[in-house]
Amino acid sequence: MSRLSTLALALSLAAGSWVGLGKPDAAQAHTMAKALVARAGMAAIPLPGGLAPPVEPPAPGVDPSLLPDPTPWPRLNPAVSTRRAWLLAEGPHHAAGDGRRLVTFTFDDGPFPETTPVFLKVLARHEVKAAFFWIGHYLEGEADRAVKTREIARQVVAAGHLVGNHTHDHMRLTILPRADVLEQIDRSGLAIENAIGKRPMLFRPPFGQLDAWTSERLQERGVELVLWSVEAGDMKSDDGQQIFDSLREQLEYAGGGIVLLHDVRWASADALEKLLSWLDHHRWDPARPDVTGYQVTDLVQYLRATAASPQPFDDRGELEQARSAAWRKQHPSRAAPPAVLATTRAEVD
Known about the structure:
By secondary structure, the protein is α/β, with parallel strands linked by helices. It has 2 domains: 3-66, no CATH class; 82-345, TIM Barrel (Alpha-Beta Barrel). The chain is 42% helix and 10% strand. It contains 12 helices and 8 strands. Strands 1, 2, 3, 4, 5, 6, 7 and 8 form an 8-stranded parallel sheet that branches. α1 (3-14) runs antiparallel to α2 (26-40), α4 runs parallel beside α9 and α8 (240-254) packs across α9.
C-alpha cells in the first residue's frame, strides 16, 4: 500500500467512514488511524500549496455516531424456531417498578395500491415506524397494477419502514412439496429485491407455521423469523371499532406486544388510527417510570429491549399461564380478554 493510499485510509477512518474490517469503537479507530499515519511516514508527504502536513489525526478521533452500528439486528433466534419466535414476540420481561410497555406494529399481505398509502399516512401522522411483510407476486409483471404496487413499495422503504418476505403466494408452507416451499420463499425474496433494491432479511410464514425442514432452509438463508403476539382477526372483520377494542384489550392484558394488522383492509386502517391515538393518550412517562404506559417503537428497538430483559420462561405457553394467573389475582371479578386466535398460538417447529 502506498503512503498516499494509507493516508487516505487513515483519514477515512478518522472521518467515521470505515467499513469492511469490523466495527471498531471510537478509541480503537483513533488508535488505528494514528498507527497508519505513522507507518505511512505522513510528515514526508507533500501537500499542495506549501501547507505543512499534520503530524497526527485530530485529537477527538472518530465520532461514534458516524460508525456503522455494531449491532444492526438482535440475532435472538438463529435456529429460526417458531417456538422461540412466539416467545420473542411477547417482548421484554417487565421487572418490578418498570411501567414501560412496548408496542410495535407489523402489517401483512400487501402492498396494495389502494390501501397501503392510507396506512403510510396514519403511521406518519403518529411518527411510527413499522414492518411490512409482502406477498411477492403482487410485485411482479408489467401490468399497470404491478407497476403501481412497486411504486408503493418504494414509498414504504423511503418512509423508513422495514420490509419482510411473506412468501410468493401466501401458501401454507407446511402442506407444500419441498420444492414449492423453496420457490415460495426465494421467488418472493427476489421479487421484493427487484422492487426495492435489497433482499429482505425478515420473514413471516403465512399462518405462522413452519416445519423443521423449512426452518433449516431459512436458517441457511440467514433470515430473521418474526411472528406476533397481538391480533384481532382483522381479515374477517369490517368493523374498525371492534378491531380496535380487541387490540386494546389484548395490549392491556399482555402489557404490549407485536401487533399484527393487514394493510389491505380499510377497517384495519381505521382501527390503526384509533389504536395509535389511544396509545398516544396512554404514553409511558419516563418522569414516572413505575406508572404503566405505552411506548410505540420500531421492531429493532423492540427486540433489543427483549434481548436486554428476556422472558423467564421456556415458551409462550408458560408465559401465558403466569400472565393469566397474575390477571386473575389482580382482577378477581373480571374475565381475561380472549386469547389470540388459536392458529397464532400453535407452536410448530
